[in-house]
Design a protein that fits this description.
- The protein is built from 11 helices and 13 strands.
- Helix content is 32%, strand content 27%.
- By secondary structure, it is an alpha/beta fold.
- The protein is elongated, with a radius of gyration of 25 Å.
- Among the domains are: 144 residues, P-loop containing nucleotide triphosphate hydrolases (Rossmann fold), CATH 3.40.50; 69 residues, Alpha-Beta Plaits, CATH 3.30.70.
- A 6-stranded mixed beta sheet has the order 5-6-7-3-8-9, sandwiched between helices. The protein has a 4-stranded antiparallel beta sheet with strand order 11-12-10-13, covered by helices on one side.
- The protein binds adenosine-5'-diphosphate and magnesium ion (MG).
- Adenosine-5'-diphosphate binds next to strand 2 and helix 1.
Length: 328
C-alpha cells in the first residue's frame, strides 16, 4: 500500500550524521517497500538509532535526504506524518500516571480518532489488565508493549521500532515478535532495528546489515541464506586415506582435517557441489575408506552476520552493498 503518488514508505538517500569527529551514519541508502518487515541489523554503535531518529525527523541529517511516503519528516515531523508511528530507544511515558492515562494524553495529541483506538491497542499488546497501573511500576517489557500501543493509536501504515525486543526476557521477546508478525500480517509496513540475527531471520523479509554507519549487505533474507554457503563434513573408516581421495577428487576443494572435541569425533571438511558427492562416495568405497558420516553443514546467517560485522574495519568506502557476504 503506497500512497497516491506511489512513493514507498521509506526512501532515504545518502544519509550522513556526524557528531563532532564521530560519524554515526556514513552514507545510508534505504528503501522500504509497502508490506516489508525490514530488519536494520547491526552491532551496538553501528548507527541504527541515529538512522531511525533521522527517519522520524527527530534530528537533522548532516547530509542526505529521508522521505516517508514521499514526504520530508523534517518538515512535517513524525507525529504529524499521517500513518507513521514508532519510537527510538525506549518509549517515554509519565511514570506517575497509568498506562491508560498516558495513552489518553497521546490520543488527545494525535486526534483523528486515536482515542477510539485505545481499547483495541491495549488489547493487541495484551496490556488491558494492567492499563490502570502506574507506568512507573511496569517492567521493561510492559513499557515496550505500551510503546507499541501508543504507536498503534495512530493506526500506522508504517511502524518504526528501535530494537523492540532488546532487554526483554525470552517470553517477552516471543510476545514482541508475535506482535510484530501480527501487525505485518494485518498490512503494516515495519522497519525494525536489531542486533540479533535470529530475530531478523524470524521476522523480516529484507535486511540491511550495518557496520560503523554503513550498510555492508542489503537484500532479501532468502538471498542472504542462499549466499551463506557451507561445507561438507565427512568421517570414514580411514580418514587418512579419505583425505587423499578428497584431494584427488574433481569438484572438491578446501579439504581440511577437523580435530575431535569432547562431543564430536575428528572429521574431514571440504567444499563441493552436491553433484560431486555421489562420485566421491563411490571413490571412497573403492579406496577402502567408506563414509560413516557425510553431511552438508550450512553456514548460519549468524556466521554471515559476524563475518560482515566483526572482521577488519572497512577500508575507505567500505564494502559495496551488494558484495558477497562470504568469499566464494
Ligand atoms: N547525540 C550524540 N552525540 C554524540 N555521539 C553520538 C550521539 N548519538 C550517537 N552517537 C554515536 O554515534 C554512534 C552510533 O550510535 P547509535 O546510532 O546509537 O548506534 P546503535 O543504535 O546502532 O547502537 C555511536 O558511536 C554513538 O556513540
Ligand atoms: Mg540503538
Amino acid at each position: 500500500m503506497t500512497d497516491a503518488s506511489g512513493a514507498p514508505p521509506i526512501h532515504a538517500r545518502g544519509l550522513v550524521k556526524e557528531y563532532g569527529d564521530v560519524t554515526a551514519v556514513a552514507g545510508v541508502d534505504l528503501t522500504v517497500e509497502a508490506g516489508d518487515v525490514y530488519g536494520y541489523l547491526g552491532p551496538n554503535g553501528a548507527g541504527k538509532t541515529t538512522v531511525l531518529r533521522m527517519l522520524l525527523g527527530l534530528i537533522r541529517p548532516t547530509a542526505g535526504t529521508a522521505r516517508l511516503f514521499g514526504r520530508d519528516p523534517l518538515l512535517e515531523g513524525a507525529r504529524a506524518l499521517q500513518g507513521v508511528a514508532g519510537f527510538v530507544e525506549a518509549p517515554r511515558f509519565y511514570p506517575y500516571m497509568s498506562g491508560r492515562r498516558n495513552l489518553e494524553l497521546l490520543a488527545a495529541l494525535d486526534g483523528d480518532g486515536a482515542a477510539g483506538r485505545i481499547d483495541e491497542a491495549l488489547d493487541i499488546v495484551e496490556m488491558t489488565a494492567r492499563q490502570g497501573h502506574k507506568v512507573g511500576g511496569y517492567s521493561h517489557g510492559m513499557r515496550q508493549r505500551l510503546g507499541v500501543a501508543a504507536a498503534l493509536l495512530r493506526d500506522p501504515r508504517l511502524l518504526l521500532l528501535d530494537e523492540p525486543a532488546t532487554g526483554l526476557d525470552p517470553a517477552g521477546m516471543r510476545d514482541m515478535r508475535a506482535l510484530v508478525a501480527r501487525l505485518s500480517s494485518e498490512g503494516t509496513t515495519v522497519l525494525l532495528s536489531s542486533h540479533l540475527m535470529p530475530e531478523v531471520e524470524e521476522l523480516c523479509n529484507r535486511v540491511a546489515i550495518v557496520r560503523t554507519g554503513r550498510i555492508v549487505y542489503e537484500g532479501d533474507v532468502e538471498s542472504l541464506r542462499a549466499r551463506a554457503g557451507g561445507h561438507w563434513r565427512l568421517r570414514t573408516t580411514d580418514d587418512v586415506r579419505a583425505q587423499q581421495v578428497l584431494r584427488e577428487q574433481r569438484g572438491v576443494s578446501a579439504v581440511a582435517g577437523v580435530p575431535g572435541t569432547a562431543s564430536a569425533p575428528s572429521s574431514l571438511r571440504f567444499e563441493a557441489d552436491e553433484a560431486a558427492i555421489a562420485a566421491l562416495s563411490i571413490a571412497l568405497v573403492d579406496a577402502g575408506a567408506p563414509p560413516v558420516e557425510l553431511s552438508p553443514v550450512r553456514a548460519t546467517l549468524e556466521d554471515v552476520f559476524f563475518t560482515l560485522t566483526e572482521d577488519e574495519p572497512a577500508v575507505d568506502g567500505g564494502l559495496p552493498a551488494t558484495a558477497d557476504p562470504v568469499p566464494a
